[in-house]
Amino acid sequence: MSALRRSSPRSFAILGIACLFALYLWNSLLRHSPRITGLHGKALEIFQRNAIDNTVVIVPVNTGMLFWAENLLCSLASTNFETTKIVFWALDSNAETLLASKGRAAYHDPSLFSTSANENLQGDTASYKRMMKERPKFFIDVLSSGFDILMLDADTVFWQSPLSIVPQSTEKVDVVFSTDSREFYQDHDAFQDERRRGPYIPPICNGIFWMRSSSQTVSLWSEMLAVFQSWRSHISLREFQDDQRGMDVLLNDGRAQLVEPLPNGIQARTVPATSQRSPERALNVRLLDQTSVVNGHLLMNRHDRYAGNLAMLRASGKERLGAHFNWWTKEVSKKDGAGKLGMLFADEQGQCTERLKTS
User: Fold this and answer.
1) Phi then psi for 286, rounded to 5 degrees?
2) pLDDT value of residue 228
3) Measured between alpha carbons, how far apart are the two ends of the chain, in Å?
4) What's the CATH number for 41-357?
5) Average pLDDT of 17-21?
6) What value, to the nearest 5°, has the Cα angle with vertex 59 and ends 55 and 65?
7) Where are the domains of the chain?
8) pTM for this predicted structure
């Protein structure tokens, strides 16, 4: 009888486990192999050519989200923002090809995991979550190359230039975030939010943010990446579900301080002062007003309150800036919701509607 035939089921089981363990170790080595950070060659030229006072406006998009990129561009057509300066972070090669065919600046890093499908069509998929965990690598590359970032998700629209959220060079602001809070701060204590991950900064959103290039901001993403790459991360830090929630955790460890101007509904006397870091080393965080830059949860689930706040904003002589369609898509799809809200500025072919062209 051959050795193979003499082998017991237990031997095969042990061999299988050994093979799986070897595969795990190999994948682990690949994940932890040193990356050459920063932008180089053609990529660096793309960012240099399109930077606006050192800020690069970045829109991440894969093939499945190209319609929303067109919708975003159509909304910007009525503003004074020069859309040709946007750098589209093409997550898959097909998106890069399609964007380039339209003469748009597109950057693609084939080493990062991506899919071409719309992974957020009806709730988040495993592939969507995996793509989100690749984002720190990209942000490290851009920030470590010396560029400030103005990040706009494709499923956003604007009524004013998004550059208006970029701080003046004389302002001591390191990062500017939109909020992911489910309630308006006029009705709810921002520092007692059920989704908060610490005492200093209310829930932030990575769909619309600006970040200054510095060793401190690079460190934020480097620390997050280290957690994502650790085999223990799913056990030790469950809060790090994705890049947004990971950023919430890091900004609330004492390194960050909320600075004025504050969103409507937050009073300076209620803002906790950081205690773990000296003021000189603290990251200064500006939180955008919830009515001026509204998230999808407030748009969709608090629409009457939003309409009232918007009326008061306009009565004060101001106008809303932008909106993010990040409501829970298992309940309402992005297209159905945006259509209901009157925020579809592109047709099915991605062409700007006549209403917008003539407005």
Assistant:
1) -105, 130
2) 84
3) 85
4) 3.90.550.10
5) 57
6) 180
7) 41-357
8) 0.86
